[in-house]
Specification:
Bound molecules: ligand G3I
Oligomer: single chain
Order of helices and strands: HHEHEHHEHHEHHEHEEHEHEHEH
Strand order of the largest sheet: 1-2-3-4-5-6-8-9
Number of strands: 10
Shape: globular
Radius of gyration: 20 Å
Helix content: 40-55%
Strand content: 15-25%
CATH superfamily: Glycosidases
Distance between the termini: 31 Å
Number of helices: 14
Length: about 350
């Protein structure tokens, strides 16, 4: 266990007492559901789900009472939905779209232009023409199938390096500087009513190389008429790192000023294990502040959790030694982070 300084100990004790008070308040009868709170605050409150989640009664119950949007964590990724160039696997996405409609939820698509999880045939593309044709066909086929049923899409994902230059991917390499224009224009043509989003990590702060590069790129895209409607900040956070609320708010406001909305689109807050009082309080703080920012910034209003419980989480695979990133534990018990998030969401 970490050593507590006097200040940290006070902060941790205070946070745990106030979260406990909130838990008691929420447990009292008559509290509106998180989904109702989000609706009332004009917010998207969403959850990334696996294909099997819609068949798991416990998860379904939580989804229905908590979230007004779902996003496929993996089911729409290229290799999953189109494992071979001429073979489409629609079953998981069709079922998710039906589930969302039946439960009056919105559904977000994730994702088309990405460097990961592409079918092998994508990596054997040789020319700009081939790449434009395949990417356009991919986007058009999916968005036409779900036209009017899927409300928003991460059209492109993770296009930046940490220094703000564009990542060397098969799409950028073959198509060239207008690779994003090609993707976003194809998406707009396929479903003019869907919201089109550029998604990335480490782009949430104004004043960082990647954050500023993303802002400048979107500004240029807008100036040349490319239909980009929103940016998504993934926000896979680490509890122990400093959290710069002002830099996130500043970033949201500058995008909002040019008519581009922001979303916190893959939120989880990992901690260096084991959990203790200090990192629990840090984790609570990040969840609460993110929800409060999303609630109070007119240019944001959207927070999507990347998974519900620590069971089956992607974090321990990707970050050995880290975990406990979600708001429910492995036994589907609500964690202090749950109540912290609800506090930020409701403002109470
Ligand atoms: O379903 C198979 C299973 O049958 C097999 O036994 C097992 C063996 O490794 O793999 C399972 O598939 C894994 C899948 O997650 C389902 O859990 C894949 O290997 C694994 O690569 C995949 O990881 C996903 C990762 O993206 C790569 O696509 C994570 O679930 C998903 O959370 C993660 O999400 C990404 C976002 O799309 C973009 N932003 C970053 C974020 C986290 O990496």
């Amino acid at each position: 266990m970490k050593r507590l300084t006097a200040t940290n100990a006070f902060r941790a004790a205070f946070a745990i007492v106030s979260i406990a008070a909130l838990a008691t308040a929420l447990a009292s009868c008559g509290s509106p559901s998180p989904r109702k709170i989000a609706d009332r605050n004009g917010m998207v409150f969403g959850l990334a789900i696996k294909a099997g989640d819609i068949y798991t009664p416990e998860t379904v119950k939580i989804m229905k009472s908590h979230f007004n949007l779902i996003v496929p964590e993996d089911s729409m990724k290229w290799v999953n939905i189109r494992p071979k160039k001429d073979f489409w696997n629609w079953s998981d996405m069709d079922a998710m779209v039906d589930f969302a409609e039946k439960n009056r939820m919105r559904i977000k698509g994730h994702t088309f232009l990405w460097q990961d999880q592409n079918g092998p045939y994508v990596h054997s593309l040789k020319t700009r023409e081939e790449a434009v044709e395949l990417l356009t066909d991919h986007i058009t086929t999916i968005m036409t199938r779900y036209k009017g049923r899927i409300s928003e899409y991460d059209v492109a994902n993770e296009v930046f390096n940490e220094d703000g230059t564009l990542r060397d991917t098969i799409w950028y390499r073959l198509i060239g500087d207008d690779f994003l224009d090609v993707a976003f224009k194809a998406a707009r043509a396929a479903d003019p009513d869907a919201k089109l989003i550029l998604c990335d990590y480490n782009t949430e702060y104004a004043g960082t190389a990647k954050g500023d590069a993303s802002y400048e790129l979107v500004k240029e895209m807008k100036a040349r008429g490319v239909p980009v409607d929103g940016v998504a900040f993934q926000l896979h956070c680490m509890a122990e790192l400093p959290f710069n609320e002002e830099a996130i708010r500043e970033n949201i406001r500058r995008f909002h000023a040019m008519g581009v909305s922001c979303s916190f689109s893959e939120v989880d807050v990992r901690v260096k294990l084991p959990l203790d009082e200090v990192n629990t309080a840090q984790q609570n703080n990040v969840y609460e502040r993110l929800a409060a920012i999303a609630r109070t910034e007119p240019g944001a209003k959207s927070l999507i959790l990347w998974g519900l419980s620590d069971k089956g989480s992607w974090i321990p695979r990707a970050f050995p030694g880290f975990g406990s990133a979600n708001i429910f534990d492995k036994d589907m018990k609500k964690k202090p982070a749950y109540y912290a998030l609800m506090k930020g969401l409701s403002g109470k």
